[in-house]
Design a protein that fits this description.
Layout (H helix, E strand, L loop, with lengths): L1 H8 L1 H14 L9 H58 L3 H76 L1 H29 L2 H27 L10
Helix pairs in contact: 1-2, 2-3, 3-4
Length: 239
């Protein structure tokens, strides 16, 4: 499905559409979870395929360049052979053969500058393509390293998410807060009841009770003092 989408819409637009589908299903890339890693892996595979295509194109260019250079070298060698043939024919007195050989050498000589220019242009093009391939390969290796780091980070984030969920489920702070609230409520209730008890007590009755208690204490003290001052009574003797 993804390949068909990339073919219809292009690689960049296809990846964007896939990301949109993921968002519609409630799994946005920005969440930084597994879907983000999967999208990154899909993008990395696309980059790998693109680099492989570039490598294939560069290999084709190199082959064409090598063939053009070979042709140029063959033409240059052929021109030298015709010149040698013309020289040998002239030395032996074979003027027609010498002229024919030299005419062929001249024709090739006129063609060589064009061939040389094309070979040089092809060499520049190939070198530029090789440089681009090297850069893309370096970028790909960097993305691969980022991919590994991303996987590790996603795994750590998932572990931290589990810890956070566990801490939230325990709700220790919440329970502690509730305990403190209950404790404070009980203390406030105790103070309130004590205040109500003090307010509900009749001051006159309390004063009377205090006076009565003081009177009783004084009477008890007086009686005990009397007992202490009184002489002990003698007991009757037995007959």
């Amino acid at each position: 499905m993804k390949k068909a989408l990339y073919w219809l819409m292009g690689e960049k637009a296809g990846r964007a559409m896939v990301g949109t589908w993921n968002w519609l299903w409630g799994i946005p890339v920005e969440s930084g979870g597994k879907i983000a890693v999967e999208v990154a892996e899909e993008s990395l595979r696309s980059m790998q395929a693109s680099v492989q295509q570039l490598a294939t194109a560069v290999a084709t260019q190199v082959a064409a360049y090598e063939r053009a250079k070979q042709k140029y070298q063959e033409k240059a060698a052929a021109m030298q052979r015709y010149e040698q043939q013309a020289m040998l024919a002239q030395q032996t007195g074979n003027e027609p053969a010498a002229r024919l050989a030299m005419s062929k050498a001249i024709q090739i000589e006129k063609l060589l500058p064009q061939l040389e220019a094309q070979v040089n242009k092809a060499e520049e093009f190939v070198n530029a393509s090789k440089d681009r391939l090297d850069r893309e390969r370096m970028k790909l290796e960097s993305f691969k390293m980022d991919m590994e780091n991303m996987k590790d980070m996603a795994e750590i984030n998932e572990a931290l998410g589990v810890l956070t969920k566990a801490n939230n489920d325990l709700s220790i702070d919440s329970a502690r807060s509730q305990f403190e609230q209950a404790k404070n409520a009980v203390e406030r209730r105790g103070l309130k009841e004590e205040a109500l008890a003090e307010l509900s007590e009749n001051p006159t009755e309390k004063l009377n009770a205090d006076l009565e208690r003081m009177t009783i204490d004084d009477e008890v003290s007086r009686r005990l003092q009397m007992l202490g001052n009184a002489s002990p009574k003698s007991l009757p003797e037995d007959n």
